[in-house]
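INFO  loader      accepted 1 record
INFO  loader      residues=120
INFO  predictor   begin
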Amino acid sequence: MSNERVYRMSFASVYPHYVKKAEKKGRSKAEVDQIIDWLTGYDATALSVALDDKRDFETFFATAPKMNPDRTQIKGVVCGVRVEKVKEKTMREIRYLDKLIDELARGKAMEKILRSASQE
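INFO  predictor   done
INFO  writer      dumping C-alpha cells
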C-alpha cells in the first residue's frame, strides 16, 4: 500500500484495530486513548471529534493539538521498518503510534510506553 493511500485512510477506520489489539492482550481502550493523548494531545473530547469526522491520518496528525516532543525517544521496528529512520513526517508519526500500541499489547508498563522515566 502506498504512503498516499495510508495517509488518506480515516483514523476512525484504524482506531478500533488499535483497541482490539490492546484488549486481546488484556489492556484497555482507556490505555489506548492515553497513548494517543500523550502522543498527539487529543484528549477524550478532541479524540471523539476526530473519530466522528473521520479525518484521514495526515489530517489527524497535522491538526493534533500538541505533538509530544518526547516522541523522538520512540525507537524500534514496526512492520520491518525502524521507526526512527522513517524520513517522511506523516509516516513517521503513524509508525510512532503503531510502536506505542505494540508496546502496550506486549505488556509494557505505561510509564515506560509514555517515556515517563526519562522525564524524571
